[in-house]
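Need tokens for this chain, all 417 residues.
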Amino acid sequence: MINFLKHLLSLKICIAIIGMACIGLYTHSVSAQYFNLEPGLKKNSVYFKSIKNLIIVPLMINQKGPYNFLLDTGVGHMVILDTTLLNNERLNQLKEVEVRGYGEGDVITGYISTNISASIGKATMNKIPTVILKEDIFNLSPYLGISIHGILGNYFFDSFTVKINYPNNKLTFINPRYFKGSSWEKIPITMIDQKPYIQAAVSIANQKTLNAKLLVDCGASHALSMESLNQSPYPIPEPNFEANLGVGLNGLINGKIGRVEQLQLGKIKINDVLTSFPNFEDIGAKTSKSNRNGNLGANILNKFHVIYDYPNSAMYLKKNSNFITPTEHDMSGLEVIVEHDDYLRFFVNRVESNSPAQKAGILPGDEILSINFKHIGEYSLEEIVSLLKSENGRTVIFELHRNNRIFAKLLSLKKRI
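Here are the structure tokens for all 417 residues:
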């Protein structure tokens, strides 16, 4: 599937939050507040939904819900995307602000609030600093297959030692006073603008290994994104291909897809890592203040059991059952979205040029009725994504509906990198 979500979440939304933080909307006294467990509890666990490597948690807002919130280390303040969660009269009393992001386009408007309560499992934070977008310009639901109401970021991670079990979809949050460390691989983290950064060795063939500064971003579904080197474009290895990497707040983010020879996190080495290289003007030139080289995303993080220990400036990694699974790019050239009608309907949203899908004659707007003779209602969006990057040369048969006609199209998956 086209790599729409790789930067859609981390670079559309967390950049908006950077803009908010930079203009001093919140005071230190507000930001010092935390989530608190119910009295007597040392820890609590909830189960999350995993979609495209992203973590979707159930969150109560002002004692209502639960609502679907993306858990995101790449975001500072909480974000609400769906204003229907709040009282309209209350919204009218809030300060309206401008949100700027990457790309070209109009400025987006939103509200700020410090009078919202949020609860996850048996933990609650009152008066959590929140950015409320006036319009849900992201429209994430079609791309994830479920409604996404907002994003939960730093205030949650700053309150607990957080353990993520990706294979079991289990999130455990521990009162830091009761966390005694771990025997797992320890990676020091540095917090900058409420976001965690690590140092990691990145190796490209015929290039000197770089000790890279990476944003740890569990809210971005890519594996690795390399953005800049010494305030210049990051060297792109061969082979690579042009790709649309996602959408910023104000426009498309373009670049290339390639592979780095090796990524080393502490003593753990991962070879042949699928990597995005966004155009320097789109990303690298606009993150120079953080002096970062790139972004470590969920398609690497989900290969580990992960512990985020912000209070002690560390994260811990232990290989899980996903570790041996190679990171692969979509092999079809299709971007599939979901529409919630009386039942789920799956549509082709975009088709990459010169892709197997385009060569097969599949067009944007085609409705998918079945895949490989299996009714589309028997698939989840996640299963379709996995199928379309499953095996080079694999034949996939689509039954499609277009202009009152039903017909079949056959394509052969092709590994491009």
